[in-house]
Amino acid sequence: MRNEEVTDIQNINKLPIVAVLITGAFLAILNQTLLATAIPHIMDDLHLTENTAQWVTTIFMLVNGIMIPITAFLIETFTTRRLFLTAMSIFAFGTLICAVSPNFGILMTGRIVQAAGAGIMMPLMMTIFLLIFPVEKRGSAMGTVGLVISFAPALGPVISGWLVEHYPWRSLFLIVLPLAIIDVIVAFFIMKNITTRTFPKVDYISIVLSTLGFGGLLYGFSSAGNSGWSNTIVLLSLAIGAICLTIFILRQFKLAQPILEFRVFKNKIFTITTVIGMIAFIGLIAAETILPIYMQNMAGYSALDSGLMILPGALIMGIMSPINGRIFDRFGARYLVIVGLLILTITSFLYTNLTPDTSLSYITVVFAVRMFGISMIMMPSTTAGLNQLSNKLIPHGSAMVNTMRQVAASIGTALLITIMTATALNTGKNATPSELIHGVNVAFYVATGLSFVGLILALYIKGTTPHEDRARVEQEEG
Fold first, then answer.
1. How many angstroms separate the CA atoms of 117 and 83, rounded?
2. In 3D, which of 141, 148, 117, 113 has the Cα closest to residue 127?
3. In the 8-state DSSP scheme, what is residue 69?
4. CA dist 445 → 286, 351, 416 (Å)
5. Of 305, 287, 335, which is closest to residue 463 (Cα–Cα)?
6. Alpha-carbon gap, residue 134 to 331, rounded angstroms
7. Cα 85 from chain centroid?
8. What beta strand segments (E) does 120-161 contain?
9. Helix, strand, or coil here: 62?
10. pLDDT per residue rounded down to tens, the chain (478 residues)
């Protein structure tokens, strides 16, 4: 039989597998923001302009976003063990290229290779967690995933900020590389085959359409924040992305074995929780993107101040994610998500009255409370949505959730930065901090409105427990 290599999930030792997956995902997500504060040093060393240097982070996000949608296909084609080892090995090889890169071209190549491996990690980890843990323990398991998602991106700028002050920027990769290699070696001995292979037919047209569709949209939105919406390349990439993505979606409905199963959106709760997750991620990105710009360019704070402002909130979110997971296992997602979105709405509103003299303690405390709220939304809503799906559809659901989160990050960043610059009272050389900050406050008004929409949607989440959800899904499958 084709699936005879799949391990008996009931009898496996889950802890080593969880440790290997968490480590791999942590390193992958850490690299999204690891170079954030190192860009000035890379610019000086490689003689780059700011726009060119930004590509070391943009390309990682772009390739990451392109890889995620095809992960469901990869999970159904390859064994769990082979796919994880390949993804982590590709990531490690990309890290090595970055560590020894003598010029910008080689560094970009390394970042592309890194992102190709990293893009597989999150959907693969979420799929494995949902399969190896019984439904009544999925909240706790996915809470651990939430810890990684929240802590790794916040830790990146802090680690890089300290390292580049004392060592060359390539040291960032030299620290990640041995950890990635160790993870590959350990995984070689302990990783088991969890997922069931269905050997879907390779539809190369869908893969090309997915790459151009998601890649075009992600590039267009991420570039719009810097280049403006009237830029020809931005408009062209958005148009190509929208057209290719539309054709890709229509094609998936016609295929017997689609690359990415859009029928998951036929489930109302999955759709609602996915949209709520996107809104929460936009809320997360809004604060982590706009506040450092406000602090450093308008309020006179240092880069270190803005990095340290984020850290307490990240720690709180990391600590609370597993706790919220346990609450989810007992009571379901409804009340967690409603309270979380209420907190997110209130803290967004508290950021609509910023001034040049707003204290660091105010910004930090509000951000920490905000992250507390987001921790109640992200993984509980994701797990509640994925619990609605059969085991067969979970790889597609995981890939879809992560894809939508990536799209939300790009759209949210572009939208809010555009609003921030367009509504500033003055953006010229003589603009005062107060005139610029007006745009920041308006951007947070928009973020408040989005959070409130999410709060309304949360009222439609059924108040069922995970166990009841699974019983209903099994009944429908039967």
1. 10
2. 141
3. G
4. 11, 8, 10
5. 335
6. 16
7. 21
8. none
9. helix
10. 344 455 556 667 788 898 999 999 889 888 877 876 677 788 888 888 766 777 887 788 888 888 888 888 898 889 989 999 999 999 999 999 999 999 999 999 999 999 999 989 888 988 888 888 888 888 888 887 777 777 777 777 777 777 877 888 898 899 999 999 999 999 999 988 888 888 888 888 999 999 999 889 888 887 776 677 888 888 999 999 999 999 999 999 998 888 888 889 989 999 999 999 999 988 887 787 788 888 878 888 877 787 788 888 888 888 888 899 889 988 888 999 999 999 999 999 999 999 999 999 999 999 999 999 999 998 899 889 988 888 888 888 988 998 888 888 878 877 888 888 888 888 777 888 888 899 999 999 999 999 999 999 999 887 666 666 666 666 665 5
Spatial CA neighbour of 225 closest among 361, 54, 98: 54
Residue count (the chain): 478
d(CA 397, CA 403): 10
DSSP character for 196?
Answer: P
3-state SS record for the chain: CCCCCCCCHHHCCHHHHHHHHHHHHHHHHHHHHCCCCCHHHHHHHHCCCHHHHCHHHHHHHHHHHHHHHHHHHHHHHCCHHHHHHHHHHHHHHHHHHHHHCCCHHHHHHHHHHHHHHHHHHHHHHHHHHHHHCCHHHHHHHHHHHHHHHHHHHHHHHHHHHHHHHHCCCCHHHHHHHHHHHHHHHHHHHHCCCCCCCCCCCCCHHHHHHHHHHHHHHHHHHHHHHHHCCCCHHHHHHHHHHHHHHHHHHHHHHHCCCCCCCHHHHHCHHHHHHHHHHHHHHHHHHHHHHHHHHHHHHCCCCCHHHHHHHHHHHHHHHHHHHHHHHHHHHHHCCHHHHHHHHHHHHHHHHHHHHCCCCCCHHHHHHHHHHHHHHHHCCHHHHHHHHHCCCCCCCHHHHHHHHHHHHHHHHHHHHHHHHHHHHHCCCCCCCCCCHHHHHHHHHHHHHHHHHHHHHHHHHHCCCCCCCHHHHHHHHHHHHC
Query: Global pTM?
Result: 0.82
